[in-house]
Design brief:
With 384 residues, this protein is α+β, with helices and mostly antiparallel strands. Helices cover 24% and strands 23% of the residues. Helix 8 links the parallel strand 16 and strand 17 (351-354). The radius of gyration is 20 Å and the shape is globular. Mean pLDDT is 92; it is low at 1-11.
Length: 384
């Protein structure tokens, strides 16, 4: 599925898939690769594309946490070995807890601070603490450079820059009001994660714990010192040509249902520039000059990369559907693709197509659910 499941069964062990603990879906093993901050080097993307073609279904799926997953993996052990070889599996014990969202354009365009070093420091700190390997695989961290993009995605624990040298601690997707020096932010997050382990009981996310944010603050010896600010966002990521202001360009490309065919991924890797996978299931190709950016658009737009913010594909998302999910009542993705091609979407605006009433992968915000019933689809409208 292109987004990660949202209704775990807490009566069972943590089954959140990773690169080592795969999920056995109806179409075979599903392996999910954590990409802290969404960071991906071109050589790593090339290796993932090759692995997808040789060991899996032939495409990379981007998830709503800025990760990548492969479906129908035929040899999970060999796939994990390949990840280790390219630096995408730095810790076998901690690989599922490295869920770190970061402002994708940080350090290049906008923002109050550059959070890229925070991502690396937080990732190293997580992997260095044996106790934190026990965090649930659904716990999420966010590092927002002040623009409010990833703070709006309801991470369990996060930092949000409120100045060049000061951050607020984000708890359960809300501003806690606790202001701390930016230099102490990563250490505070790691300590907060340890407290989360102590208080979680059988709960998987901080917002599910009674008084969870207040208990985290108390454990850290902190208190609210400022009026909390609203961290809600518009639910959309950047798309198109993004000028750095210094002659550099980043291209933000959407993808139909967040999927990249292996061949297209190889073309992206061949550009030889750093990439960022975003939580909006898009990809940023960074640090281009204008001539190269023009050639990339010319070559890759016909291959399915979306640089037009008005594309209807940017308004829709979907669960896996049949045949990948045994519970689905329809070939959701096939039906959605036909509706987009015919210009016959059932509603205007954001919509999420699903194969059953579980509504897996539903994005945040006001979204219409288009639900398979076994006899067509119905539309459920409800904010979230």
């Amino acid at each position: 599925m292109s987004a990660e499941p949202n209704t775990p069964d807490r009566s069972r062990p943590d089954a959140c898939p990773g690169a080592l603990q795969v999920h056995q879906a109806a179409d075979g093993a599903l392996a999910r690769v954590r990409l802290p901050g969404g960071f991906l080097e071109p050589g790593q993307l090339q290796a993932l594309a090759e692995a997808s073609r040789e060991l899996a279904a032939g495409e990379l799926e981007l998830t709503s946490r800025g990760n990548v997953q492969l479906r129908a993996v035929t040899d999970p052990d060999r796939f994990a070995e390949r990840l280790a070889e390219i630096g995408l599996l730095p810790s076998a014990t901690h690989e599922r807890v490295r869920n770190i969202l970061a402002s994708p354009l940080s350090g290049r365009i906008g923002g109050l601070v550059d959070v890229r070093d925070w991502v690396r420091d937080l990732d190293r700190g997580l992997c260095a603490d044996p106790a934190l390997a026990q965090l649930p695989g659904r716990v999420m961290f966010s590092l927002d450079d002040g623009r409010g993009d990833v703070s709006a995605l309801s991470a369990d624990l996060g930092l949000h820059a409120v100045g060049a040298d000061e951050v607020t601690l984000v708890l359960a997707g809300r501003d806690s009001g606790a202001r701390i020096p930016a230099v102490d932010g990563v250490a505070a997050l790691l300590e907060a994660a340890r407290h989360l382990l102590e208080i979680r009981g059988e709960q998987w996310r901080l917002h599910e714990i009674d008084g969870g944010p207040e208990r985290i603050l108390a454990g850290l010896g902190m208190r609210a010192t400022a009026e909390p600010v609203d961290l809600a966002g518009d639910g959309a990521g950047p798309i198109g040509w993004l000028d750095h202001g210094d002659g550099g360009v980043t291209l933000a490309a959407g993808l139909a249902l967040g999927a990249i065919p292996a061949r297209t991924a190889e073309f992206l890797a061949a550009v030889g520039k750093p990439l960022v996978v975003t939580p909006w299931r898009s990809v940023l190709l960074c640090d281009l000059d204008e001539w190269t950016a023009e050639q990339v658009v010319r070559v890759l737009a016909p291959m399915g990369l979306i640089f037009d913010a008005a594309s209807p594909w940017l308004q829709v998302s979907a669960c896996t559907g049949s045949p990948g999910c045994a519970k689905s009542l329809a070939d959701v993705r096939g039906d959605l693709g036909a509706a987009v091609a015919a210009g016959e979407l059932p509603v205007e605006g954001r919509q999420h197509w699903v194969g059953c009433d579980r509504k897996c992968g539903r994005p945040r915000g006001e979204v219409a659910d288009v639900v398979a019933t076994g006899d067509g689809y119905r539309v459920d409208r409800r904010p979230r």
